[in-house]
From TrEMBL:
GO terms for biological process: DNA integration. Gene3D superfamilies: Putative Large Serine Recombinase, Chain B, Domain 2, Resolvase, N-terminal catalytic domain. GO terms for molecular function: DNA binding; DNA strand exchange activity. Residues 182-297 form the Recombinase domain. Residues 426-453 form a coiled coil. The active site is at residue 28. This is Recombinase domain-containing protein. Keywords: Coiled coil, DNA integration, DNA recombination, DNA-binding. It comes from the Bacteria. It comes from Streptomyces capoamus. The keyword Coiled coil applies. InterPro entries: DNA_bind_recomb_sf, DNA_bind_recombinase_dom, Recombinase_CS, Resolv_N, Resolvase-like_N_sf, SSR_resolvase, Zn_ribbon_recom_dom.
């Protein structure tokens, strides 16, 4: 736009009034806020835009009333730009602004529809939109050139976005990390053959905390809050703030498969080039199950701590029991468990004092959580006999597994190539890849664990039998920490009725053992009445065949069983249970 036409639009010589304008300056990243204007000819800094817009205002003889700066907001629509919305509100409120000056159209509008709508909206209140760097001319021709520029800018944004999207997909396909590396890694730049390469390296100050976090969580003894405290005490600090990791940040960390060596783009997972900090897939999966279990139990550890929280459910209405704190008339503080159903008006279960509930669980352990000596002996003998003849995979089966892995590897490469291209249905490709990888994991696990599977199964069954030797005595003499471990290992839920445990939902393999124990003694009682002989091996067949226990469940049990003599001695001598008492303040 020439100076004569600008004077026509901006200055009304007859009125003799100096025109009032506002400036709108925008960059798409916070880094550009501090870019040196001397080396920024393209207007990618606030300083550059400010100088050009103020010079343009002086040329028009206008006074700058206000400057609106949109820092580091890359939104492509004006609705997502808070400063632009503030400017529109200011223009309507002031009512005496003649024009908005901006650096160029591309800085303001990335969408030709926004450009047209905004121009019409401002024209309705007598405000012009003027570019400091572009001269579109006057009249219809000028408006056409302005509109074509907006369409071209929109096309450039879309084209650039598609190009970036393709590059990101290709980077992920080749195992590269997209965006900021997670905690434990650093984004670094290296020069290779004279070229700068952006890659990811291990953070020497923080990477060793990641395996520590997974291993501690995998024990089943930690909550997110307790684990966060231990990691902070051990020295883990966030890179910028210097503070400990938040519990929500820790939750995301423990869920992130990046630590297994994978990168994800648009829902498709690719093998990454970065170093995996968690090499044991079983460890990662175990942590996921523990996080899922804690979420299902809805345990809240932030308010009142107790080792029975999350375990107790109402035997009448099957609502969850929660712990509450009450103050007595005489000033004492009391803790009770109460049913959520009572709170909702659908249950008549009374409040149960904490110490009464603790005694009820203790009695349940003594009366119901045990196996008779003869049954345990029968199971142990049957386990040894059943497993003695088993062996590792045959050579022919191992060869078939290896052949199948080769087929799956080629299929995975094929689908990954398709995922890197545009137009293919991502959901279907993701499902295909997930199915392939699940089969690969299953076959690989079978190959790697074939020789140790039998031994592990025997060890876990033996450990379960030993734990059920006299759990009531162990529970009675244990402190709160060991009680919590026992409860979590044996049960998913205890159903309460009054001051006693009415029934329980046991975890594997204890659920199957207890069921078989009942069947075993029922059969023996029938044998005594009828004079027939019970086939004990038939009763034990389901658990020994794995029908009641998954391989995963047996492996999960390791680490929960306080069975070693040293543990029993420590429980008997050093860990005396002290119930929560009523406290006078």
């Amino acid at each position: 736009m020439g100076s004569s036409s600008l004077n026509t639009r901006i200055r009304d010589e007859a009125a003799g009034r100096t025109k009032r304008v506002v400036l709108y300056l925008r960059v798409s990243s916070k880094r550009q806020m501090d870019t040196d204007s001397d080396v920024d000819p393209d207007g990618n800094s606030i300083n550059t835009q400010d100088k050009w817009c103020r010079a343009f205002a002086r040329k028009l003889g206008a006074v700058v009333v206000k400057v609106f700066i949109e820092p580091g907001n890359s939104a492509q629509t004006i609705e997502k730009r808070p400063e632009f919305r503030k400017m529109l509100a200011f223009l309507h409120e002031d009512g005496d602004i003649d024009a908005v000056i901006y650096y160029n159209r591309a800085r303001v509008f990335r969408n030709y529809i926004d450009a047209g709508n905004t121009k019409q909206q401002l024209a309705s209140i007598g405000v012009d939109l003027l570019s400091a760097r572009e001269n579109f001319g006057e009249g219809l021709t000028g408006e056409v050139m302005e509109a074509l520029t907006d369409v071209f800018n929109w096309w450039m944004v879309r084209q650039s976005g598609e190009d970036i999207k393709a590059k990101m997909a290709n980077k992920a396909r080749n195992g590269g990390t997209i965006g900021k590396a997670p905690l434990g890694y650093l984004n670094v730049r290296k020069r290779v053959d004279g070229r700068e390469i952006r890659t990811v390296a291990l953070d020497p100050d923080r990477s060793h905390y990641i395996p520590m976090a997974f291993e501690l969580m995998a024990t089943g003894r930690e909550t997110l809050e307790s684990l966060q405290g231990k990691l902070t005490d051990a020295g883990l600090r966030m890179p910028r703030s210097g503070k400990g990791i938040s519990t929500e940040g820790l939750r995301k960390l423990l869920r992130d498969r990046y630590y297994l060596g994978f990168v994800e783009h648009e829902g498709i997972e690719y093998p990454g080039r970065h170093t995996a900090l968690i090499e044991d897939v079983e460890l990662f999966d175990r942590v996921q199950r523990i996080l899922d279990a804690n979420g299902e139990n809805h345990v809240r550890h932030r308010t009142h701590h107790h080792y029975l929280k999350g375990l107790l459910w109402c035997g009448r209405c099957e609502h969850r029991f929660v712990l509450t704190r009450a103050e007595g008339k005489s000033g004492g503080i009391y803790f009770y468990f109460f049913c959520r159903g009572r709170q909702e008006g659908v249950c008549d279960m009374p409040y149960v004092p904490v110490e009464v509930m603790e005694d009820g669980v203790e009695r349940y352990y003594a009366s119901s959580v045990t196996l008779s000596d003869d049954f345990r002996a029968e199971v142990a003998l049957a386990v040894d006999e059943a497993l003695t003849g088993d062996s590792a995979l045959s050579d022919s089966l191992r060869a078939e597994y290896t052949k199948r892995l080769g087929v799956l590897d080629r299929k995975e490469d094929y689908y990954l190539d398709l995922a890197a291209e545009e137009g293919w249905p991502k959901d279907k490709l993701r499902a295909k890849l997930d199915a392939i990888r699940d089969e690969v994991r299953s076959i690989t696990a079978s190959l790697e664990r074939a020789d140790e599977q039998i031994t592990t199964g025997r060890e876990v069954i033996t450990a379960a039998l030993a734990l059920l030797d006299d759990p009531g005595r162990l529970y009675k003499r244990s402190g709160e920490t060991v009680r919590a471990i026992l409860n979590r290992a044996l049960f998913s839920r205890l159903y309460v009725d009054g001051d006693k445990i009415a029934r329980a939902t046991a975890r594997e393999p204890f659920a199957e053992l207890m069921d078989q124990h009942r069947s075993y003694h029922a059969a023996r009682a029938a044998e005594g009445r009828t004079g027939t002989t019970t086939n004990k091996a038939a009763l034990l067949a389901p658990p020994l065949a794995g029908q009641g226990w998954s391989r995963t469940a047996m492996v999960d049990l390791r680490g929960f069983e306080p069975l070693a003599p040293s543990m029993r001695t420590r429980c008997a001598t050093g860990l005396r249970h002290r119930p929560l008492q009523r406290v006078k303040l």
